Amino acid sequence: MRFRKSFGLGPENLVKVISYCDNLTALYLHCPDSCDPPRAEEMHNLADNFNALFSELGRLEYLNIRGPSGSTILSECLLEPIAHLPLLESLELAYVSHKDSEKVGKLAICLSKLKNLKELVLDDVNAIDGSWGYHEGPPKLVDLAIIECNQLYLSDMPMSISAWAPNLTHLEIKFMEYLEPQEDLSNFNPDHHQFELPELTHLTIWPHSEYHIKAIFNFLSLKTLPELEVINLSMDHQNFPLQPDVNEILSSMGDFLKGRGVQMKWFDENVPYKLQRSTKFFMS
Description:
Elements: H1 12-19, E1 26-30, H2 40-54, E2 62-66, E3 73-74, H3 79-82, E4 90-97, H4 105-112, E5 119-125, E6 143-147, H5 157-164, E7 170-174, E8 202-206, H6 210-218, E9 230-235, H7 244-258, E10 263-268, E11 282-283
Parallel strand pairs: 1-2, 2-4, 3-4, 4-5, 5-6, 6-7, 7-8, 8-9, 9-10
Antiparallel strand pairs: 10-11
């Protein structure tokens, strides 16, 4: 279901009609594209409409909320409404930001109350940062995708994700497409910055630079990922041939993983990330 009006989700009677569909199990809410920053009145409108709508849709199991491309909606609009959805199993949020940086953890706390949530996709959500690691996550969460969330730095990812979602079996990370590294990792000890996810079986990484390829493998250890079966790595074929040092890293990593029964697969980064788990897109 796609709304084509403003942040207020269109006429109130439209929201009322949808609220009558109390047997809905899946709902898609996509805001129209906009280059204007979110305004207070519109965000207040949006929060009220979400609250009225979700309070009548307690059977929802799948929810996709996409803010306007080129702008955002505020996470504060989601906190109270999402609490009305106790049966939610899958949630996708895109183009979401926060108003108060000191309260960025509120979305993490809100999500932790979704006791049935198993799958979470955060796409260009700037309301997640390293502080999430100090909160509890949804207890049944096993599948997490973090897509271009530029407030969660590479250096914070291992600790934050491992602490917030320790039971993951699938993890997907797509970095922002920056040409230069955004943080200095020269003083980091990889032994102290590793993912500790004992049940993880599938790891998908979308590096956008050679820097990301070099850095991410510093944070991987089969000792802390004992159940890992597959590493999926997005590679842009237009950037081939790779630099010799990067090619050497990938070759060594592939041999190392193969010797321990872990597959490393490459796939074309032009394939939409939601299709990346379909094996027909993979290339060896």
